[in-house]
Structures
1.
Amino acid sequence: MNVPIRKPKTTSGTRSESVYAGLRRAIIEQALMPGDKLPEDIIGDRFGVSRTIVRAALARLHAEGLIDLQPNKGATIAQPSLSEAQDIFETRMCLERQVIARLIEKVTDRDIERLEQHVALEMKANAHDGPAAIRLAGEFHILLAALSGNGVLARYVNEVVSRCSLILALYSRPHSSDCSINEHQQIIDALRARDGRTAIDAMDHHLQAVTDRALLSSNSEKHRDIRSILDRYAS
Amino acid sequence: MNVPIRKPKTTSGTRSESVYAGLRRAIIEQALMPGDKLPEDIIGDRFGVSRTIVRAALARLHAEGLIDLQPNKGATIAQPSLSEAQDIFETRMCLERQVIARLIEKVTDRDIERLEQHVALEMKANAHDGPAAIRLAGEFHILLAALSGNGVLARYVNEVVSRCSLILALYSRPHSSDCSINEHQQIIDALRARDGRTAIDAMDHHLQAVTDRALLSSNSEKHRDIRSILDRYAS
DNA sequence: GTATACATTAATGCATACAATCTTCGAGAT
DNA sequence: ATCTCGAAGATTGTATGCATTAATGTATAC
């Protein structure tokens, strides 16, 4: 055997991959909302594949906590409880602190440049107020984790950040992301200066702000969990 | 065709679950070694299910990093590289520190008792030197994570601990786990005393010991990655 | 008028058939 | 003998059909 060129180590064929990617993007951009049903044949029709492929994609989304999968009842966009939301935020903070700790040691000028470019993208998307703004805000953190060089860490950050989109959709009111972008810039600045203390503080503050925006406004009636609503109207 | 042991009546979803659980245990107990191939037909025969079910189980194992899945070539037990191994250990330490931090706050006497019982199990399994000893050593950490009450954290700890079994199988020599058990006991003692500093130190020391046993003995020719061997004979 | 039982519909659970792809092995040429 | 090409076998990729289950609609009994 010659030099091993690592091929894409993802799951089977690129077909379930594209269904997975499409659904994931729809969820993260909040085109599909928590509680929405995901019938296999409808998805299969839209993507031009059979239910077999769709099921593989759904299984993966389920493994990542983005959808619920009830036996004989099918898939729905996950509705994290407040308790789960707190678990996710706590774990996310734990993981992202480690990301920052690694980046302080090894971040390069080229990395900084990519981060700056990303924030520029965020600002542009924010100006047009497109659905991509939400996604890009999360992808900033995913990019940070990827640049940390620890693939395992990066995968977990990817998951918790994605699930945070669900939490925001459920519990938060429509938010202007301007402050998020400023905070992202602060993190970059601290990384550039190799100032670990400030970088971690900035990340902590940023995540705390996101958490508060999500969980403290949970009085908002935005979520679609009918049961908890009906409970209040049943008596 | 072999006789399907599974009863055909019970609502499925449990079926791929049992295939997943069986394969996972075989991997963690090192009955299946890194690099081994996992043909869908053979697995399906042994478990008395069709390839459809097997593929679901394999997809889940892949999502958890226990098997590699190459397109058109099937599944093999994952062979983490040294780099991946380091990533896993680093992430594991990050996560388990958080587990300890939580437990210091909320661990109950009943929790302590369950942990003590588990260590007793470990000692017994170690005496008989059965394949369960390896698994139980890991499950101590999974139990800790479960008791922490953060389900997300628990899931990630479960994954990294499981993957550590792979790393040990690849790079470590057969180890006596006695010291591990002693270290587990130290962690319990520190938790009982609500001594956070000591508990975290004990966990750090324990994981560092495991890491060293795994990675520093990587000169051992035990692993099956032909390339790294050839590299030393090619020049 | 209400509630229970039954029929209908729709969706998922699963196995299997077939297609696409990789692997192996042998024949023929150099 | 070695290399190349190719055909046969083996394994995975995908679609589809049938069985099973949940959800819904309807009728009948009280």
2.
Amino acid sequence: MIRLLLADDQALVRGALAALLDLETDLEVVAQVGRGDEVVEAARASDAEVCLLDIEMPGLTGIDAAEALRRELPGVRSLIVTTFGRPGYVRRAIEAGASGFVVKDTPARQLADAVRRVHSGLRVIDPDLAAESLIDGPSPLTGRERELLTYALDGSPVASIAARVHLSEGTVRNHLSAAIGKTGATTRSEAARIAHERGWL
Amino acid sequence: MIRLLLADDQALVRGALAALLDLETDLEVVAQVGRGDEVVEAARASDAEVCLLDIEMPGLTGIDAAEALRRELPGVRSLIVTTFGRPGYVRRAIEAGASGFVVKDTPARQLADAVRRVHSGLRVIDPDLAAESLIDGPSPLTGRERELLTYALDGSPVASIAARVHLSEGTVRNHLSAAIGKTGATTRSEAARIAHERGWL
DNA sequence: ACCTCCCCGTGACACCTGTCATCGCGCCGC
DNA sequence: GCGGCGCGATGACAGGTGTCACGGGGAGGT
């Protein structure tokens, strides 16, 4: 009997996944949480063996939760199950110690298998995503560029970004100009969108 | 026995919802599709009574699918089940003839109840969303403004938008300026983001 | 020590953008 | 018929934006 923890902020999806996995005779959902910062505690309390983690969650990212799990409960394995197959996510998930990475596009019947493989110590990574994350490599953005791009995501003017980070307007424009060059964009908001799609933020 | 059709582009979620709903003794999932433009055909072939429709799907929006269902198979009721509780979505869903609107945040056990109510002819609408969609009213955007905002969503410069719709650069700027005023934004990409969040696109 | 890279800043320049006033056209509704 | 409104367009202007050249400082590697 493999003991599972589910973490997804959408209650309906969480409950549905639980129903799906409980149909398998060798799997048992022993905990469900809706926030990333409740994962470690719930995993400890429920004595889970494998944690299915969504990435976009309040409190803590699924990737950060995987890292916390590796640190606090090294015996527990994590499997990232997410909507977005952003190449950068795969890389960061693996670096965070996750044992698997599947997108929510995969057929339902393959999920249980993925769980079993992860439980037995194997790595499960969506092959298309693995290839994609290899070809465009790691993020070329520096720390500042990444930060400023996240602030540019909503289309704020440079002046308000500069105020938020306590920097000169010129400096902000310089960093963003560099980011625009690295993403192949022509506008800061286009650059922000591209970086976001690739999981660089 | 209530006959259900599930439409969601994420295979895992679709399968999981099927598992969840099949646990109910009075419900039966008789069809599953991953595209909006396959809904009507599948509903007819499977003789479904209630259709659970996600909004964001390839081919056809869940809202448009609901409209097509009302036109082609008036006896079939639709229940929108979506990730995003954008106020404008609720309004458009109701106008398209949908009988219900729930977000994927709702507890799993309430979904089956929502299905039963819709099947019995009642309307099921998330109360918070209903209130929200009343207070900020219908979209104030004109057709052109809406179209240009969708092109502005990715942060394209005005010049490329103008080229795509075969309009003068000045005209595009005028329309976008109007949209910026109506959304309370200060930048076209901020306006695009706001309009998108409210379901005006 | 030297080089490289990231960070922060300034100044200047060309270009893009948002706003406004003003025009003409066509389509409704009253 | 006349006003209102959406649509397309032009011109002009202030201010925002992207780019480049050039500084200086600090951390890390050889």
